[in-house]
Design a protein that fits this description.
Blueprint: H1 5-20, H2 26-33, H3 37-49, E1 53-55, E2 61-63, H4 65-87, H5 92-105, H6 108-120
Antiparallel strand pairs: 1-2
Length: 121
């Protein structure tokens, strides 16, 4: 399940957008991330080739089970780290930015240990 930070960010964004709208399109992702549509198009091609998304003929993007698993893992990390940092007194905007960095580099083992610890608090 090795993915790049960029791929993980795209998958997480698709997951988040899919929670608030009936369908997700490349233009929605580009708007959300502030990227050029052409860059998003290349990324969607790569995610499709890796089996992380499907794209309908209408251009609607859906996560595959494999893509959803990665997206939910990254989203869980992002949410936990953001809440944890805010509870420590970090400004919410800074906490979200830092969480976005941490979520990609931490091992599964370390994340699970932190999650267990944070839940005890």
């Amino acid at each position: 399940m090795h993915t790049t930070e960029s791929s993980e960010n795209y998958l997480e964004t698709i997951l988040i957008l899919s929670k608030s709208r009936p369908v997700v399109r490349s233009v929605d992702i580009a708007d959300e991330l502030g990227f050029k549509k052409s860059s998003v198009s290349v990324a969607m091609k790569n995610l499709r080739e890796r089996g992380h998304i499907t794209v309908t003929k209408e251009g609607f993007i859906y996560l595959t089970p494999a893509g959803r698993k990665i997206a939910e893992m990254i989203y869980e990390r992002h949410e936990l780290f953001t809440r944890w940092l805010v509870n420590l007194g970090v400004d919410e905007k800074i906490a979200a930015q830092d969480a976005c960095k941490i979520e990609h580099v931490l091992s599964h083992e370390s994340f699970e240990a932190i999650k267990k610890h944070v839940k005890k608090l």
